[in-house]
Amino acid sequence: MNLTQESLADACDLHRTYIGAIERGERNISLRNLQKIADVLQIKAADLITESQK
Question: pTM here?
Answer without folding.
Answer: 0.85
